[in-house]
């Protein structure tokens, strides 16, 4: 009997460094380009990128109900169009080809030379062509912290928050792959509560520690996806930094919500970790009180234990880890988010991105934004070089990392990283 791809005893004939995010039990999907060639679908094991277009041309991926042309596409949407069953079969096939005892790929020197690429020689691209982007607000502690800062502890959570996964439709055109610099946004803000608004570069630029899931095609317009069906429509997860200009956002968001304070850029990690690879890390969902409406009820384990961290590296300086959190801190699960998103008949498509919202735990060191870590700028964060941060400065690089570990297996995401550049001046 073939071993399951999640079997912790599996080993690959490709070397995998100790504590790598990408053992044979992971096998994420991404889009990479090498040596000036067009970008194509790939997987990663250790520090080696495996070109799936070469494997497809060599008939190694035949019989998966995914045509060879899909492995030449510059985004994963062409593969995703064939659904979760086909992608699951693809992961199983890759696991078989890369196992230590499989010689069909290992002993073909020409195939190895063509298909295996050193990580440091490839250029990673956005993994999917994003059609629509939704940002949720699913961490109770984050919502509470923001409510305390801008309202009061007695009314920190708005009346609807415990009844439904709050979300808004974001801007897909400004989602960029890790490593893409972000220019400081400009807009209107109030320099003081009683002052008139002014125009200029944001003075309160922030990160948001998030994890996003990417969907397969959903049901036709007018039909809904239940919590029981939801994960069949989810390809996998990526790390996500939804950059936020807090001062611009604070002035503009009433009554219709985020706009210029959010749509200038969001950063996505390049490797999509498939939901199947995260099965060993399921944990119990939190008790929800008050009881949710029937369409939001779910099974007992729709949350995942994935450790997360955020660091700031000043220009020319050392990296400073300023936050450690966990995906399990979310109140609303991905299944509930997707069920709520479609309960009115809204259709979702392959490549849609749905982000968790800022992930904050109960301890101050687990708060997922500088807004919370510096408590609205009143408690500066000390860096190793003696400098302080209340919000992000030009030249700072923000890096988010995440991984899950259990039973001797570590499944990670790599990182999502972005440097902040000065605002672009008017011509």
Low-pLDDT parts are: none
Rounded to the nearest angstrom, the radius of gyration is: 22 Å
Number of structural units classed as domains: 2
Major sheet attributes: 8 strands, mixed
Overall average pLDDT? 97
How many helix segments?
Answer: 10
Helix/strand structural class:
alpha+beta
Write down the CATH class of the largest domain: Alpha Beta
* CATH architecture grouping of the largest domain: Alpha-Beta Complex
The number of distinct β-strands equals: 26
Distance between the termini: 66 Å
- CATH fold node name of the largest domain: Fumarylacetoacetate hydrolase, domain 2
CATH superfamily of the largest domain: Fumarylacetoacetase-like, C-terminal domain
**Shape label:** globular
Strand content range: 25-35%
Considering DSSP H and I runs of 4 or more, what fraction of the residues is helical?
10-25%
How would you describe this structure to a colleague?
With 427 residues, this protein is α+β, with helices and mostly antiparallel strands. The protein folds into two domains: 30-125, Fumarylacetoacetase, N-terminal domain (SH3 type barrels, Roll), CATH 2.30.30.230; 133-421, Fumarylacetoacetate hydrolase, domain 2. It is 17% helix and 27% strand. The protein has helices spanning 52-57, 77-80, 83-98, 103-106, 109-115, 140-150, 227-230, 246-252, 334-342, 370-373, and strands at 30-34, 40-45, 48-51, 116-118, 122-125, 133-136, 167-169, 175-177, 182-183, 186-189, 198-201, 205-206, 209-215, 234-241, 244-245, 266-268, 273-274, 282-283, 303-304, 307-313, 320-326, 353-355, 381-382, 388-389, 397-406, 409-421. The strands form seven sheets. Strands 6, 7, 8, 13, 14, 16, 17 and 22 form an eight-stranded mixed sheet that branches. A hairpin with a 5-residue loop joins β1 and β2 (40-45). It is globular.
């Amino acid at each position: 009997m073939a071993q399951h791809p999640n079997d912790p005893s599996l080993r690959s004939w490709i070397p995998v460094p100790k504590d790598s995010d990408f053992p044979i039990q992971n096998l994420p999907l991404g889009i990479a380009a090498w040596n000036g060639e067009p970008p194509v679908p790939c997987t990663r094991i250790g520090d080696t990128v495996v070109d799936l277009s070469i494997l497809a041309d060599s008939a190694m991926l035949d019989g998966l109900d995914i045509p060879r042309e899909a492995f030449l596409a510059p985004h994963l949407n062409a593969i995703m169009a064939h659904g979760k069953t086909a992608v699951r079969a693809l992961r199983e096939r890759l696991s078989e080809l890369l196992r230590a005892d499989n010689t069909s790929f290992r002993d073909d020197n020409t195939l190895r030379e063509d298909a295996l690429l050193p990580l440091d020689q490839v250029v990673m691209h956005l993994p999917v062509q994003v059609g629509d982007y939704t940002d949720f607000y699913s961490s109770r502690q984050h919502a509470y912290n923001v409510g305390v800062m801008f309202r009061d502890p007695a009314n920190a959570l708005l009346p609807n928050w415990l009844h439904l996964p709050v979300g808004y439709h974001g801007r897909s055109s400004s989602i960029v792959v890790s490593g893409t610099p972000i220019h400081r946004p400009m807009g209107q803000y109030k320099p003081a509560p009683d002052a008139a608004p002014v125009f200029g570069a944001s003075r309160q630029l922030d990160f948001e520690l998030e994890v996003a899931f990417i969907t397969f095609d959903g049901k036709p317009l007018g039909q809904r996806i239940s919590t029981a069906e939801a994960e069949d429509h989810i390809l996998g997860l990526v790390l996500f930094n939804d950059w936020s200009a807090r001062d611009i956002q604070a002035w503009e968001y009433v009554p219709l919500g985020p706009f210029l304070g959010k749509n200038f850029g969001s950063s996505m990690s390049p490797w999509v970790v498939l939901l199947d690879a995260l099965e060993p890390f399921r944990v119990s969902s939190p008790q929800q009180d008050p009881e949710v409406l029937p369409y939001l009820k779910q099974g007992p384990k729709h949350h995942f234990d994935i450790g997360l961290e955020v660091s700031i590296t000043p220009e020319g300086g050392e990296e400073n880890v300023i936050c450690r959190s966990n995906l399990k801190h979310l109140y609303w699960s991905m299944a509930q988010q997707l069920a709520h998103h479609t309960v009115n008949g809204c259709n979702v498509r392959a490549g849609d991105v749905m982000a968790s919202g800022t992930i904050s735990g109960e301890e101050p060191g687990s708060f997922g934004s500088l807004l919370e870590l510096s408590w609205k700028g009143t408690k500066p964060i000390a860096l190793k070089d003696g400098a302080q941060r209340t919000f992000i400065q030009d030249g700072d690089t923000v890096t988010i990392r995440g991984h899950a570990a259990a039973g001797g297996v570590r499944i990670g995401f790599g990182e999502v990283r972005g440097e902040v550049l000065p605002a672009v001046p008017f011509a």
